[in-house]
Amino acid sequence: MLKFALKNMIVKRVQMILVALSIVISAGIAVLAFNVATQVDEGITNNAGYYSVILGPAGSSTQLAMNTMYFSEKPLGTIPYSVVSTMERDSRVTKVIPFAMADNYNGYAVVGTTPDYLANKTVGKGRLFDPQGSMEVVVGYHVARYNSLEIGDEIHTGHSAAAGDLHAQALTVVGILEESHSSFDNVVFTQLRTLWEIHDHGEEEQEGGEHSDHEGHDHGQATVCAVLVSTKNPGYAMQLVTEYDGKIQTMADGDSFTLQAIEPMSVVRDVLKDADDTKYIVFVLCAVILVMNIMIISIITLLNMYHSAKEISLMRLIGISMKRINLLYVIQNSILGLISVVLAFLMSRLCMGLMNDYVQSMGVVLNTGKIYPAEGLILLGVFVISVLPTAIWTFRMSGKDSMIG
Fold it and tell me: Which residues contact 52 (CB under 8 A, 6 or more apart)?
């Protein structure tokens, strides 16, 4: 029966291809939309929970959040390092992490910070950079993979990838992060003072000997792009935002700057709200495509049955029961449905790979190997839909055959 069903599918390959295309497109789009939307939600939400408040230059709150947590936007500018020292002295604060972004390595962003910024990541090879030292880097998994970097290798960063724009100082790779399927895979991390030294900052500090990036010494004109803060409780976070957002501060030389203070989770919720609106539109389109899929499969199945009347009559004449004939068509459509949903799944993964560059602009790296249980339910539902018209038709024909018999 199985062999006959396969032969019958080859004979009617045009109808089979039309049905398969309908299933692959509808199921593939549905699975792709669900997986991408879920990974984007999770990727954006996860990092936002690590910090209570982010301080930075006045400007777009979304840009500040996306730059410091997902590296997907350019920095708004810089603020004096004195803001870091002020936060460290605040009794409401439990952790202060300076953040600066400057230059790149072969197109990958270079971030100056402290080891605390990588506290939630795992080092696959080597170690974290020494907060007391300089000119050491920890590179993301993809940075190491695509540039064939190993522990002990030296790299040169610059304003662009052109040889003339590279800094003379070599940075030594001391650690490679494990793959996390996040924006951290595509970044080079180093000590904050490394960026200062490369850009002729921190000369005063070097005269005073070695010290940590954030020990509160006089950092002169040293600057950072942002300050990430963890507080003892959410109430303190709200207090800090109220106190520092829009605050104008004057430095010793008379220059002034305006601070911005945000709660990252609040900003992320606003970003996801816009993303959710788009996601629902995509889901509605998927539902419309599924309905069209049911109609196409039903019409093709009925036409197939109509054109198979002579074939069915011949099988009846040689003694094959209607139940076995019906089973033949159910097996045939089941094979077609199974092949189609597998192709739909593979198509969704291929599209995810092609979409990765676009999604990375949101600070999320898609994991094509990540499968959600709901995806299996979607594919199962489409498979059932692909077999249902044939099953209903054959059930009705079997009933008529029994009454005739």
Answer: 229, 230, 231, 234, 236, 237, 240, 263
